[in-house]
Specification:
39% of the residues lie in helices and 26% in strands. The chain has 307 residues and is α/β, with parallel strands linked by helices. The N terminus is likely disordered. This is Phosphate transport system substrate-binding protein.
Length: 307
Amino acid sequence: MFKFKVYVILLSVVFIFFNCKKNENEDVNDESILKGKATIYVDETITPIVEDEVMVFESNYDAKFTLISKSESEVLNSLFNKKATIVVVARNLTKKELNVFEQSKIVPKITKFAIDGIAFVANKSSNDTLVALKDVIGFMKGERNSKIKGLVFDNPNSSTVSYMNNLAGLNGLADKDVYTFKTNNEVLKFVSENDGMIGIVGVNWLSQPNPSMNSVIGNLNVLSVKGLNKEGYYAPSQNNFAEGTYPLLRELYIVNCQGSSGLGMGIAAFVAGDIGQRIVLKSGLLPYRIPARKLNIVRGHSNNEKK
């Protein structure tokens, strides 16, 4: 009788153990394209639009994302080191970067979803709201200009620095009269308090500012830019993005390396779909696909109504 009781107890322990392991595995594998938990690493210069997309996705589906905002360099390094499997960046991967994945037999799913831009901002006290791109590039190369006292970037490893260095053909920023901070908001605050400085930030931080930054934004002019070998000055507006006249455009991408049908696939499809593209349109950026409109005829007159 004693042996029988011991046998029953052991059997119960084994049953509970395997049942717990089963539940653990179910929790681990409980992610689909519309539910579960996932982490997204985001280029900090485009954090506001990603926050908006994620908020709406989470409100519609049983999903929870953790957003980690880092510089472009840190985001991509996290992807290459396999610390991150879903990232949002302000450029496409280069051929060299794609080769890194190819060697690991990983095929990234890359989804373009918006067109953003780099904006130049100056203190409101300046009456000049125009700037030539050649003058900014010249300043980066050490050519001093009476209109520009200094350039201010968000982070030495950011996508804005990389973008401008590529335009200027430089490998790094100059030590003199070129300043870097940690965030876009710090750049905006510094420029708002210092005459003659030009801040260089992602347009997304101006089109969707944090409410706490309203007074700072109110003390800034967003400059219209004349492109290299171009005529005319253009502001970083949706219309100028669409027409391609603004000279500092860049494309936004979701890179998904999950290798399975998880939330990376779900958020990419959502952002590139009708609702996600309307969120982009509302944000002040340009959707990759302009959402369709339908014409409703109501009692003898017509209404253009968004779907």
